[in-house]
Amino acid sequence: MVSVKLGPANFSSCPNGSSQWIWDVLGECAQDGWDKASVGLGLLSILCFAASTFPQYIKACKTGNMDQALSVWFLLGWIGGDSCNLIGSFLADQLPLQTYTAVYYVLADVLMLSLYFYYKFKKRPSPWSARINSLLLFILGVACTTPLLRSARSGAAPREVFRGRTLLSVEPGNKPFTEKEVIGFAIGSVSSVLYLFSRLPQIRTNFLRKSTQGISYSLFALVMLGNTLYGLSVLLKNPEEGQSEGSYVLHHLPWLVGSLGVLLLDTIISVQFFLYRHAAPSSERQPLLPS
């Protein structure tokens, strides 16, 4: 995780006993129990996402059929959504934990796609391999430089006076979107759409194969848990000074849809794991040559 050193001068604008380490490391002003719970759930979500990919890496190395088990459109939709999520989080001034989580998303996606194309080109060499490797390296570079840009910007960013969470607030606190935030919001909306549609090719692949062999269920189980914790961490965060609950949710809506909205589709994939748990892939149950 990238450390964001904001200095004691800026910390003085974060009153009410905020945790110093949260400010120094994450750049967030955790001033009450809601904020600290938001940070805690956000960190837990990162751990879930970090742990989710390793079982699939191990499964891919053991079975060697990752290119058959996972849909390439699922992986492309996933990395497309994560890339838009990263860019949108930066432009729309989302919570620091959202940006850090988005960085890890992209890094994990690059490794997952690398494994997919490794096993695919290992069986069927292609002249496209060099171009695909270059594209993955470019995405990797963008993911690594984005948090550095955020760090430079956050050092001079003024902090608002703290206002506690007030549910069902009737204050006229509709925070207007800046031009930069509108662009980030639009990119974040594209990200949520890509997240939703990325699951459909994988659901179709599992249905056609009548099998989930080669896929680690831990990948989807931990992603579901991580998305739940991630969404809760955003919802528990206190709004800014003068901002109502509704305005706060609106500003974070694409990222909430992207995290909580895919839970239904991941539940369908979970049901497929249960239905096909004893089934062999269709290619193993059919003759090699058509009759």
Draw up the topology in text.
Layout: H1 7-11, H2 20-26, H3 33-63, H4 66-69, H5 72-91, H6 96-123, H7 129-154, H8 179-209, H9 217-236, H10 245-251, H11 253-260, H12 263-275, H13 282-285
Helix pairs in contact: 3-6, 3-9, 5-6, 5-7, 5-8, 6-7, 8-11, 8-12, 9-11, 9-12
**Low-confidence sequence ranges:** 1-11, 152-172, 283-291
Compute the separation of the termini in Å.
56 Å
Continuous helix count: 13
**Rg from alpha-carbon coordinates:** 21 Å
Domains (count): 1
Report the biggest beta sheet as strand number plus sense, adding barrel if it closes.
none
Shape: elongated
Percent of residues in beta strands? under 5%
**How do the helices and strands follow one another from N- to C-terminus?**
HHHHHHHHHHHHH
Structural class, by secondary structure, is mainly alpha
Mean pLDDT: 74
Number of DSSP strand runs? 0
Helical residues, percent: over 70%
Brief description of this entry?
The chain is mostly helical. It has 13 helices and no strands.
Structural features, described:
The chain has 13 helices and no strands. It is mainly alpha-helical and 291 residues long. Helix 3 runs antiparallel to helix 9, helix 6 packs antiparallel against helix 7 and helix 8 runs parallel beside helix 12. The radius of gyration is 21 Å and the shape is elongated. The N terminus and C terminus are likely disordered.
Give short descriptive properties of this protein.
mainly alpha; 13 helices; elongated; 0% strand; 291 residues; disordered C terminus; disordered N terminus
